[in-house]
């Protein structure tokens, strides 16, 4: 498929088998909770595979339509200069799995040069990185005194997979507000906090920590870009439902629909993991907005509940 076009829904195994398919297999497929539904997945392409796989297991036809492209920062010198101060920080907060991927890769790169840590005790020693092309060094990367926090469980999981055992993260709603409510982020006056994130984004986390007396530094370790996608391709695939997981992605989608039939597509059920995104969607004109729990599990549970209701 050429760049800028949505990947069409996968044919299900019964469709591929043709008319002579085993009837029991056909019945099994038809009984899957999302059988035959065309579900749009708008996450960045690198992060969409797992959700698409699970959708297929539930019988859906996932349509990949990434609304964000993720890139490394071009100014590595600025990033490395910031990371040289990591050993003076008290808390490092990772906003997203991409912040973990790009931030920890950069930290690991500098640790091999002896820049990010000179402590004998560490909370993380590089063992596995998100990119298989990253050369893992022997030098410690994160000082033992550094507290590590994440906005959501997906980011916390990514950190744990890299060997960071102790991660501060909310266990219910996964947003800045929930992280700020945790006890570990209350008494932060005088503490140095580094927030790893993409370019731009909400300022609530940093502003609140500053109001509590913390010294906050944003570390932009990746860039988000609006991809060149044709919304007409998505509309032509007759989506049954659309999933959107960020307000920025929602804005990109609405912009892309400016040259298409906004009125028609706005009637398609839209599944989002946060009320903030839902509010923006309703203001745009989406007619059927469903707020789910966070993460893949939340989106899938919401889709299944909706599908069950629609089929009654």
TrEMBL record:
Q: Does the keyword Hydrolase apply?
A: no
Please provide the Gene Ontology terms (biological process) for this protein. uroporphyrinogen III biosynthetic process
Output the Gene Ontology terms for molecular function.
Answer: uroporphyrinogen-III synthase activity
**What metabolic or biological pathway is this protein involved in?**
Porphyrin-containing compound metabolism; protoporphyrin-IX biosynthesis; coproporphyrinogen-III from 5-aminolevulinate: step 3/4
Task: State the family named in the UniProt similarity comment for this chain.
Answer: Belongs to the uroporphyrinogen-III synthase family.
**Top-level EC class as recorded in UniProt:** lyase
Task: Give EC number(s), comma-separated.
Answer: 4.2.1.75
Q: Which InterPro entries match?
A: 4pyrrol_syn_uPrphyn_synt_sf, 4pyrrol_synth_uPrphyn_synth, UROS/Hem4
Name of the protein: uroporphyrinogen-III synthase
- Primary gene name: hemD_3
Q: Which residues form the Tetrapyrrole biosynthesis uroporphyrinogen III synthase domain?
A: 50-295
Question: What UniProt keywords are attached to this protein's entry?
Answer: Lyase, Porphyrin biosynthesis
Reactions mediated catalytically: hydroxymethylbilane = uroporphyrinogen III + H2O
The record's listing under Pfam families reads: HEM4
